Amino acid sequence: MSTPPAAPTKGSPLVLAARIVPIAAVLVLIGVWERDLPAITEVVVVALLAACVLAAVHHAEVVAHRVGEPFGSLILAVAVTVIEVGLIITLMTSGGPSTASLARDTVFAAVMITCNGIVGLSLLLTALRTRTARFNPEGTGAALATVITLATLSLVLPAFTTSAPGPEFSGPQLAFAAVASLTLYMLFVFVQNVRHRDYFLTAPAPTPLPGSAPARQPAHPTGNHISDAIHTDNDPDDAADTETYAATPPTRTALTSLILLTAALVAVVGLAKVESTTIEQTITAAGLPHSLVGVVIALLVLLPETLAAARHARRNRTQISLNLALGSAMASIGLTIPAIAVASIWLDGPLLLGLGPAHIMFLALTAGVGILTVMPGRATLLQAGVHLALCAGYLFLAANP
Q: Which of 80, 127, 303, 327 is the most exposed, having the fewest neighbouring CB atoms within 10 Å of its CB?
């Protein structure tokens, strides 16, 4: 998950906002619960919902920083998953049969946005600055392989199984997919943070030719290790590269963030419940397919990761950006599918997980393009453009199937 640069000072506007937003969101939730809201209030609630997601991720990062790795990454992943699952279940319980495929739509949207949108944006920003984006193919390739495997087990297989009608798993099949997804995710966290941590560090710079100036390619942390120090870059065109990571926060600060994190998660789920009917009515009134709700959820949940990945890419930290993108996709499947599988015990109606032919094609194309991008350990503007074109194509067809 995301790794922040040096934390803002204790009284900075960002920190104050992160502390105020969860409290304000809970108070607003109490005030608007089960009430008919005017349009202006609806806009305020939606804006507060988005701000609360950002605040939740901030406080999760503070707690993760205090706990350290590998548990820090798990805290971040669980916090984001709670938001995603909370939004999905809230909309599924209030939307009726039309939301049977919401979990599939949201998870697949997260895969496409991370593996093509965030990856493409990261490669683009780095390539514009340094001509070639460099990264470690061993770690990035392992992450991509895990994402594709998780997506196939959870989203492709249901379209071909015959034990249950339609693109859904039977009970035992869903249990297997949930256990396999969670196991693969936990195994990846262990490999990334303990066993083969060096695979997820920035690859060393190539040896310069005789007489040429050495390439500036600093070694950076993985993006999942919050306590690691960031290289101090002396590039005069980017003063922000002088950032370093803050010291480990004291226990009191971590406990405060834990309380605010809990409040933020409650507020996100509650405000999503308040806005669920409005969101669905707006999409229906606009003549858009109901599956677009899943795309909206994915975009909202992935907003903090997108901003963090772009920030690191602008500073030539491609490996961190790719770790963020692929790690987000992995958590979206590896934690969301098991949570939805458990929740399905209490949910009415079917749980449609199988992708249609067009989405399976997009996933296969993403896998092939991703492999070709990762194998060399470097990428140019062309690879960035290909990934962004895939993401744009998916988003366009999501609105115009």
A: 303
Distances (CA, A) of 109 to 122, 155, 250, 267, 293: 18, 12, 37, 24, 10
**pLDDT tens by residue, 180-196:** 999 999 999 888 887 87
**186 vs 64, 222, 331, 335, CA distance in Å?**
17, 17, 10, 9
Q: Where are the alpha helices (DSSP H) in 169-316?
A: 171-190, 251-285, 292-314
Three-state SS sequence of 117-145: HHHHHHHHHHHHHHCCEECCHHHHHHHHH
Per-residue pLDDT at 6 exceeds 70: no
Contact 140, 374 (CB under 8 A): yes
Handedness of CA 389, 394, 395, 397 (dihedral sign): positive
**Spatial separation of the C-alpha atoms in residues 55 and 267, rounded to whole Å:** 11
Q: What is the DSSP letter of 198?
A: G
Q: Is the pLDDT of residue 389 over 70?
A: yes
Average pLDDT value over all residues in the chain: 81
Backbone φ and ψ of 355, nearest 5°: -80, 155
CATH of region 13-399:
1.20.1420.30
Angle of helix 71-95 relative to helix 336-343, nearest 10 degrees, comes to 40
Q: List all residues 6 or more positions away from 390 whose beta carbon is below 8 Å from its beta carbon.
A: 112, 116, 120, 362, 365, 366, 369
Q: What is the 3-state secondary structure (H, E, C) of 333-389?
A: HHCHHHHHHHHCCCCCCCCCCCCCHHHHHHHHHHHHHHHHHHCCCEECHHHHHHHHH
Give phi and psi for 133, each to the nearest 5. -90, 125
Sequence-separated (6 or more) residues with CB below 8 Å from residue 34: none
Contact (Cβ atoms closer than 8 angstroms) between residue 390 and residue 365: yes
From CA 157, how far away is CA 374, in angstroms rounded?
Answer: 25
Distance of CA 300 to the CA centre of its chain: 9
Mean pLDDT over 286-312 rounds to 85
